[in-house]
Design goal:
mainly alpha, Serum Albumin, Chain A, Domain 1, 2 domains, three-stranded antiparallel beta sheet, two-stranded antiparallel sheet
């Protein structure tokens, strides 16, 4: 018993004498005065910052950063995918650029069935999992309409990273290891991302992507036609079809970037501008803020249990509506006005208990609030 007491006293002394200059577990915040680029990889961030320093605007930097992320974060993003962009230039109204992937023309309701049963892997791995990519068209469209830099200057940094390679970090290698069987299933993918023996590379190994560099160079020289109409498109469609997919050259040639109006809301006096459908994020982000506006969340402590409870309840209501109402507005009628209604949000907030968790078994009825109009709502579908 005495030995334990002495040990405990020694432990307290050690704690008291720990230097207060121990570095924090996470890096200190970074501040910028004239511009800032934030993304998942430092090399891509540097590309965007360099574009700004050389006289580019925010759209130039965003497009250059996105192309760079296609090199440094190929498992999260890249020219085989698509995206959304909201652009707000000084003195102009905000514009939404929709360049999400679209289904090929031969897509049909039962394409992911196998022997009459849904096979979820068909929509995740292989040719049928591929949609018509929109990233190249969307990024170049934004650059053409709002940027001041030329394609070659935007793409050159990413070409250099792809050709010279960059060191993989632990997260990269963990992702490769987690998905190694899927990667081994495709010869070219395995050749690029795995060792010659078919194993996970070690951290700090260089990832060199010469084919991607050549693709970027062709896009820099020829524009989106190189991707959607030329040799690159032919190779893409051939590989997809060899792996069970249905995308054709006609699908690539028919791809169009869409311009949409954003959805708008007001939260405690601040205007919120976000993505309309087919993105579900914008509509339901504003819906959640509308619900939370009816609660005292602004003075509750950061990450307090009550604040988290209120946020969770707002998310439950919004996600129940999302699951039922959201879709592609080209094919589905979406009650956007009702979903963004302050009165609808107030009604939803009254279902929540301030402390106890409330089960949300069904979606709400936003269509009952479709007649409402105000100056902060864009009307869709």
């Amino acid at each position: 018993m005495h030995r334990f007491r002495h040990t405990f006293h020694l432990f307290l002394i050690l704690l008291i004498h720990i230097p207060i200059s121990i570095p924090a577990a996470s890096p200190s915040p970074v501040a910028g005065k004239q511009g800032m680029v934030v993304c998942q990889h430092e090399l891509a961030t540097d590309v965007g910052v360099d574009i700004l320093k050389s006289g580019g605007n925010a759209v130039d930097a965003a497009v250059a950063t996105a192309f760079a992320l296609g090199v440094t974060e190929p498992y999260h993003c890249g020219i085989g995918g698509g995206g959304f962009m909201i652009v707000k230039m000084r003195g102009q109204d905000p514009v939404v650029i929709d360049f999400r992937e679209v289904a090929p023309q031969q897509a049909h309701r039962d394409m992911f069935l196998e022997n009459g049963q849904v096979n979820p892997m068909l929509s995740r791995v292989g040719g049928l999992a591929c949609a018509v990519p929109g990233e190249v068209a969307g990024l170049l469209s934004a650059l053409d309409k709002f940027g001041v830099k030329e394609r070659a200057e935007i793409l050159t940094p990413s070409i250099e990273i792809a050709e010279q390679g960059f060191p993989l970090n632990h997260n990269d290698c963990e992702f490769i290891q987690y998905n190694i069987e899927k990667l081994r299933g495709f010869n070219e993918t395995a050749r690029i991302f795995l060792t010659p023996e078919g194993n996970t590379p070690e951290p700090a190994s260089l990832l060199i992507q010469e084919d991607l560099a050549r693709t970027y160079r062709q896009i820099a020289e020829e524009g989106e036609a190189a991707f959607y109409q030329g040799e690159i498109g032919e190779k893409i469609t051939r590989h997809i079809q060899e792996n069970g997919g249905i995308i054709t050259m006609e699908d690539l040639a028919a791809y169009k970037v869409l311009t949409r109006e954003p959805v708008r809301g007001v939260y405690r006096g601040y205007e919120v501008i976000s993505m309309p459908p087919p993105s579900s994020g914008g509509v339901h982000l504003i819906q959640m803020l509308n619900i939370l506006e009816n609660s005292p969340i602004y003075w509750l402590g950061h990450n307090s249990t009550q604040k988290i409870h209120l946020v969770v309840q707002a998310m439950k209501a919004a996600f129940a509506d999302r699951a039922y109402f959201l879709g592609d507005p080209d094919f589905v009628k979406i009650p956007v006005v009702g979903l963004l209604s302050k009165n609808y949000a107030n009604m939803l907030s009254k279902r929540n208990h301030p402390i106890l968790s409330t089960d949300i078994e069904n979606h709400g009825e936003p269509q009952d609030f479709m007649r409402e109009t105000d100056g902060h709502t864009s009307h869709h579908g």
